[in-house]
Amino acid sequence: MEPIRRHFDHQLPFTLLLDYKETKSPQRELPDHQHDWYEFIYVYGGKGSFFIDQTFYEMHPGDIIVVPGNTVHRGFPDNEEPVTSSALFSARL
Predict the structure, then answer these.
(1) CATH code where residue 49 lies
(2) Closest CA relative to residue 48, chosen from 87, 79, 72, 23
(3) What is the dihedral of CA 56, 67, 37, 17, to 10 degrees?
(4) What is the pLDDT of residues 56-93, one digit of tens each?
(5) Residue 1's pLDDT is what?
(6) Could you provide one GO biological process annotation from this protein's UniProt record (predicted)?
């Protein structure tokens, strides 16, 4: 499935791109990775944990996760209640 990317420009000094909104099972989650831009993840539903720079954080509906650029991270969705989330990112941050 190709990612959905939409440009947002709400008078911010930078542009945000919406990468996707989907429910991911543990088998479909990306391995540990990093990139040079900030990533903002909004959790719509489900539960799991998120690994950022040697620390695990619990994910719950309504959470916003901020991943700084050049930081190793990875999601771990719950098997019974996988996380539905969207990722926003900006190459200018």
Answers:
(1) 2.60.120.10
(2) 79
(3) 120
(4) 999 999 999 999 999 999 999 999 999 999 888 776 65
(5) 44
(6) regulation of DNA-templated transcription
